[in-house]
Amino acid sequence: MPIFVDGKNFKGMSINFVPNNIPEKTIERLSEYRRTLLNELAKGVTHLYSHNLANIHGITAVQVRRDLMLIGFSSDTKRGYDARVLVDFIGNILDSEQVMNIAVIGMGHIGHAVTQHFTGKRSKLKITMAFDVDPDKVGRKSAGVPVYHIDDFVTKVRENNVKITLLSLPTSVAPSMLRPIVEAGIKGVLNFTSTPLNFPEGIYVEDYDIITLLEKVAYFVKECEAVRK
Amino acid sequence: MPIFVDGKNFKGMSINFVPNNIPEKTIERLSEYRRTLLNELAKGVTHLYSHNLANIHGITAVQVRRDLMLIGFSSDTKRGYDARVLVDFIGNILDSEQVMNIAVIGMGHIGHAVTQHFTGKRSKLKITMAFDVDPDKVGRKSAGVPVYHIDDFVTKVRENNVKITLLSLPTSVAPSMLRPIVEAGIKGVLNFTSTPLNFPEGIYVEDYDIITLLEKVAYFVKECEAVRK
DNA sequence: TAGATTGTTAATCGATTAACAATC
DNA sequence: TAGATTGTTAATCGATTAACAATC
Q1: Domains in chain B, please, with CATH?
Q2: Chain A CA closest to residue B36
Q3: What predicted TM-score, i.e. pTM, was given to this entire model?
Q4: Binding-face residues of A in 13-42 toward B, CB within 8 A
Q5: Using the CA of A18, which nucleotide's C1' is the nearest one?
Q6: Cβ–Cβ contacts within 10 Å for residue B74, how many?
Q7: pLDDT tens per residue across span A41-52
């Protein structure tokens, strides 16, 4: 039932159709709800009301209920949502059937941190390889993942059905990866570098810019102080 | 001229007033424009049209012009914006007069990466100290910044007029920092952990959740594939 | 001048919240 | 039952885009 919407252009997103009717923000929150639900389950909590989920995330209960409505989930009891059932339901929305392979480009501190975070998780997302130019890293494993030379990017990615890449290399060399990423058939990019990269349509890009976010925090701190005075 | 707007509640933001009329998204883009302009200046480019800036960032020229309108910038020539002048103008909006001190909580890979990125930059934002529990790190410098024990957080932050903190410690221990952060008088938090933290009003929080963003990228990749079939 | 560019208002689109009927 | 909770529509709020007059 996906609706084909041509010519849309989200911020940081080069893509010519929006797959179906679940809003971007709802997708983000679903991921967050799921993690919370798994935490609660681990604590022994089996049911949560919409206002429980809302309080934990600092949002309103209406928003929680509306998000669940949008994905077609309903609890049919008034005793709160069954955490286990909801986790699975969200999984049906978010997860793909097969494991999604991810390649990390640039095994510096950030690349390493994220890889470490992901290895050994029960997720449908799996970081399966990394690329770097450092001879000390290439040919070894880092954070549990084999590191190849960046020159082998296109072949390795194609051979192993990798669809997503995590750009964590120095900003200055990021643009040089644009062409290999397209050539290798990558479909999703999480861009940690501080450079806007204009990928062609059909590649989903999420920018993740630490500098900008810090400047934003600083701005609001400054302005709030100004108001107080 | 800031307008006091009571009772607003942004996602991931506990705050009871919005300082003035510049939208959040515009603030983000201003930070990005500035970085681009500095890059272009370094390359010898002195003037840029709105569509130049737009192309670089993958947005429309109208949006660029509207953002500049909102901050009251105008070029009064039709030869494009003077990069140098615009950089300074954006600086007047975004930057505070004094340096904003930042403390990093958790000097693991992410904390180290960000700190390294920031040290030695000509910015109004300065990472001045870090906190950890690891005896190998405490008492030494890491990425050019002194590392103190987390127990000294409140005193050190107060002594040194630190207003912003960067939460890069393991998710499981993040909630334990909530109280010290409030007590120390921190006003802005950039939260790298995957836990929603409910800070009291008056503290601006920006969540920066890698897992959620990766899941989002994976979702859109999956959905786009589904549409293609 | 004609064409390109700018600044700004109005219209549209998307996301959140208010209101409320239905249900346990 | 009365109170709490849910699901959903309508209203509001915020952000982007379309349209256009003014200017070089």
Answers
A1: 4-93 (1.10.10.10), 100-212 (3.40.50.720)
A2: A195
A3: 0.89
A4: 14-15, 17, 19-20, 24-25, 27-28, 31-32, 35-36
A5: C14
A6: 11
A7: 999 999 999 999
